[in-house]
């Protein structure tokens, strides 16, 4: 009945941008014009915009280290209270360390690094939805002598240029020579040293970054402060390529960084503060910066569990928190009912790994990023 | 106080204008309240620019499809319908075979009804996502312009995505 051959391209586009990545890869074979549409940068970004705004297309990315299999396992879960398993992701890498450090993830692209305890600089961008990855070239700033050199990584998105950027802060660890900064741009495929001035604070290479709206955030402290800590957040805006400082709530400004972590609450940056709760277990208070850049923080609730709180990892859409308990189990916590739900997932008990260290939980959208850039 | 009687007057004697939409495929006519029909940006532009006569001819859309479009517009013009009601009603409208859906998406595009375009596109996407690409080609009436070698090369780039497919 339908003379469908007459479907205008704008309708084809409306339909295609609603398809899962796997279907789109197959439908490249329909005809040449479908293939060039699907692999075009404009189409790829319009799918991302749609998935980010549509309620049903966000997933939870989970990484655990399996003691039995001696390897890291990546899975996608539904963003529902029981975080039901959606897909097992095929992980194509092997690492020097027991598992990769996840620098960050953005629009379906995951940045992995295996730079700890090794002079290799293995940094990979991985898109599991289309099973493509890209190994980054060797960074240009090098300190060949030292074991003590510091190298901090961040992964952000330049929304103006529509490009993904890995930022690397590298210093010789001497505190005499200020560290230098370089940026890898997916679009150009190369590292570029930039002039940005790094705030004079220490960001430990192991501490996780948190990505919000493409901006990278690290917890940091001022090493020159005498008598206690001076802690704060250092942010790197991937569009402007400048660093900014964000103050913590005044009551937490001198807190030890081991008692702090960052995450995202809705569209806001959230700070998790760990302190001793009842029954001598670690409790966690959640603070939210409601208006970005205006460092006014609001404490929204405290999680005080019998099992203790190891690490608050990620908020679900319904407001529940996925967290690792003090016993290394992954649970979801409902702050209104103060109820804990076991997710039946346990962290590693590897001696080199903190209970909570191998967990990574982030929101995730499918995307076709890397499908076009691989044809360079 | 002065505005109260005015409101009452409006409520008791609402101006109920109607429009007649006529399918040019099978000459079927539909009499529709104006505010229902105005959800179509195309019709609204015609009415606004005084191009609309008593009967608005709708080319290339059959009566069967036009009836679905009008059902959609009626549902969405009802101010007391909840979001849940609308979702259910939308699902009913697009519970059709793929060829009807393609006609419907073309109609939604021609009449410029954004919500209907989105809900129909989503349903088409859901219906084709697990189909082999050969079937999709046929449904959309697309001519295969690949040589067998070219097609095999594109396929080989993502072999894993074709597991279980011809």
UniProtKB/TrEMBL annotation, chain A:
SUPFAM superfamilies: F-box domain (SSF81383), Galactose oxidase, central domain (SSF50965). Transmembrane segments: none annotated. It comes from the Eukaryota. It holds the Pfam family FBA_1. Residues 1-48 form the F-box domain. InterPro entries: F-box-assoc_dom_typ1, F-box-assoc_interact_dom, F-box-like_dom_sf, F-box_dom, Gal_Oxase/kelch_b-propeller, SCF_F-box_component. Gene3D superfamilies: 1.20.1280.50. This is F-box domain-containing protein. It comes from Actinidia rufa.
Automatic annotation (TrEMBL), chain B:
The keyword Transcription regulation does not apply. Residues 26-77 form the SKP1 component POZ domain. It comes from the Eukaryota. Keywords: Ubl conjugation pathway. Gene3D superfamilies: Potassium Channel Kv1.1, Chain A (3.30.710.10). GO terms for biological process: jasmonic acid mediated signaling pathway; protein ubiquitination; ubiquitin-dependent protein catabolic process. Part of a SCF (SKP1-cullin-F-box) protein ligase complex. Belongs to the SKP1 family. Involved in ubiquitination and subsequent proteasomal degradation of target proteins. Together with CUL1, RBX1 and a F-box protein, it forms a SCF E3 ubiquitin ligase complex. The functional specificity of this complex depends on the type of F-box protein. In the SCF complex, it serves as an adapter that links the F-box protein to CUL1. This is SKP1-like protein. It comes from Actinidia rufa.
């Amino acid at each position: 009945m339908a003379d469908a051959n007459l479907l205008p391209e704008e309708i084809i586009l409306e339909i295609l941008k609603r398809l899962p990545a796997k279907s789109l890869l197959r439908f490249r074979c329909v005809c040449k014009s479908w293939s060039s549409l699907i692999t075009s940068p404009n189409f790829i970004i319009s799918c991302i915009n749609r998935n980010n705004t549509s309620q049903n297309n966000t997933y939870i990315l989970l990484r655990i280290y399996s003691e039995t299999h001696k390897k890291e396992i990546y899975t996608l879960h539904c963003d529902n209270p029981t975080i039901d398993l959606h897909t097992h992701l095929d992980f194509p890498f092997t690492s020097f360390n027991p598992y990769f450090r996840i620098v960050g993830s953005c629009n379906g692209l995951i940045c992995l690094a295996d730079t700890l305890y090794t002079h290799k600089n293995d940094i990979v961008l991985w898109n599991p939805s289309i099973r493509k990855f890209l190994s980054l070239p060797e960074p240009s700033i090098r300190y060949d002598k030292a074991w003590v050199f510091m190298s901090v990584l961040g992964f952000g998105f330049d929304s103006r240029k529509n490009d993904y950027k890995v930022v690397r802060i590298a210093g010789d660890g001497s505190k005499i020579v200020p560290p230098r900064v370089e940026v890898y741009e997916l679009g150009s495929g190369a590292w570029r040293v930039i002039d940005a001035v790094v705030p004079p604070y220490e960001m430990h290479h192991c501490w996780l970054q948190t990505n919000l709206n493409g901006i990278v955030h690290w917890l940091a402290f001022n090493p020159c402060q005498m008598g206690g800590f001076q802690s704060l957040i250092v942010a790197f805006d991937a569009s402007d390529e400048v660093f900014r400082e964000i103050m913590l709530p005044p009551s937490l400004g001198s807190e030890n960084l081991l008692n702090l972590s960052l995450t995202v609450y809705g569209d806001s940056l959230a700070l998790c503060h760990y302190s001793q709760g009842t029954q001598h277990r670690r409790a966690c208070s959640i603070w939210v910066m409601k208006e970005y850049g205006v460092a006014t923080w609001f404490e929204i609730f405290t999680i005080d569990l019998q099992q203790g709180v190891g690490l608050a990892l990620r908020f679900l859409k319904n407001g529940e928190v996925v967290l690792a308990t003090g016993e290394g189990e992954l649970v979801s916590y409902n702050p209104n009912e103060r109820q804990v739900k076991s997710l039946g997932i346990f962290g590693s008990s590897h001696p080199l790994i903190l209970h909570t260290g191998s967990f990574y939980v982030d929101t995730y959208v499918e995307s076709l990023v890397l499908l076009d850039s691989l044809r360079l | 106080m002065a505005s109260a009687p005015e409101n009452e007057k409006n409520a008791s004697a609402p101006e109920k204008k109607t429009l007649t939409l006529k399918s040019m495929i099978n000459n079927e006519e539909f009499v529709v309240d104006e505010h229902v029909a105005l959800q179509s940006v195309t019709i609204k532009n015609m009415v606004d620019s005084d191009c609309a006569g008593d009967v608005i001819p709708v080319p290339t859309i059959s009566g069967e499809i036009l009836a679905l479009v009008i059902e959609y517009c009626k549902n969405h013009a009802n101010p007391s319908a909840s979001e849940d009601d609308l979702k259910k009603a939308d699902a009913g409208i697009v519970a059709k075979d793929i060829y009807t859906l393609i006609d419907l998406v073309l109609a939604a595009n021609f009449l410029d009804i954004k919500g209907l375009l989105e809900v129909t596109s989503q349903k088409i996407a859901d219906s084709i996502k697990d189909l082999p690409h050969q079937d999709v080609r046929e449904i959309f009436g697309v001519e295969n312009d690949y040589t067998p070698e070219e097609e095999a090369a594109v396929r080989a780039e993502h072999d894993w995505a074709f597991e279980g497919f011809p």
